[in-house]
């Protein structure tokens, strides 16, 4: 009898082990990309609450993150985007979320003395945790981009740890702030504060497919090999700005071509109908109408106001005009020709929130110089410009 009981126990144990093994294999076969991505999430730099610095992380995305399918259906709101991400990434079992946030910022393009083309960008906000995200999808181009993790609802005052937070971070490819792809195309997003009494989101309503703010940037990184291709892609969609605010973009490529993409209808006093806005593209070699002598130069730059002539009654109404002029003065001295990537980073430092605004409660969360010729990224978090340990380098190719 003892032998029979022992044999039954062994058989039962084997059955349970087999069930667990089958379950594990099934789970991995369904979520292997998500599992690999979640476990690639790692901290690069600790928080510094005394300095109001968030932590810095990186993540390498395995697989295609379902973006090829997404652009076929699109989304006309953050709610629809969240629904899509939840149903595809976690198969509906774990809810995902996207939170509202403001995107201030500055950016510019320039040429280095060695001929390389660069795209410099500051992301200005408050203390937050940041993630550098590397993607290499079969449906498009490899890229490296930057994510503000509070966009995914992750607490800005805590480290990002634990399995659930790692799962939440799987949605990161859908909310890039800036990035460069393997073809040397870079793009970034900026608030544009459009509307008379309050910021009014662009919310186009035609028969075109729908896309949201950050997913439009992902569209460019994944599918555009040039500025012209980026503009062509964007033109095929109705834009629906996220977080009930308005944005504009700058995109550039390794040939020196760049463009500012804006959606406007009238002046700042009359641009109160987000559905009526239309895309206006301002190329760097066709911008004499904005009144600076850079019309004869390769470089271009942007902050947080619409650059279309006559949109504002005076410069005092332009958000970010102080940073805009500082960047222009830094570039105009050499007609947009800079010694090296560090010279480009120095211009970003000159408009860092803590650098040029003494006593500022804000922070330049990250500064990044994308080399469009080399397809690389030179990244510094939280205005730690003099700290060698705070310098990070990536390649998109």
- What's the oligomerization state? single chain
Count of beta strands: 18
Strand composition percent: 15-25%
**From N to C, what is the helix and strand string?**
HEEHHEEEEHEEEHHEEEEEHEHHEEE
Helix count? 9
Output mean pLDDT. 89
Helix content estimate: 25-40%
Distance between the termini: 67 Å
The SS-based structural class is alpha+beta
Strand order of the largest sheet: 1-2-5-6-7-8-11-12-13
Rg computed from alpha carbons, rounded to a whole number of angstroms: 23 Å
The outline comes out as globular
The low-confidence runs, each spanning 5 or more residues with pLDDT under 50, are 20-24
Task: Let me know the largest β-sheet.
Answer: 9 strands, mixed
How would you describe what is shown here?
This protein is of the alpha+beta class and 397 residues long. Helix content is 28%, strand content 24%. β16 (363-371) and β17 (376-381) form a beta hairpin. α5 crosses α6. The longest helix is centred in the first third of the chain and has 39 residues, at 2-40.
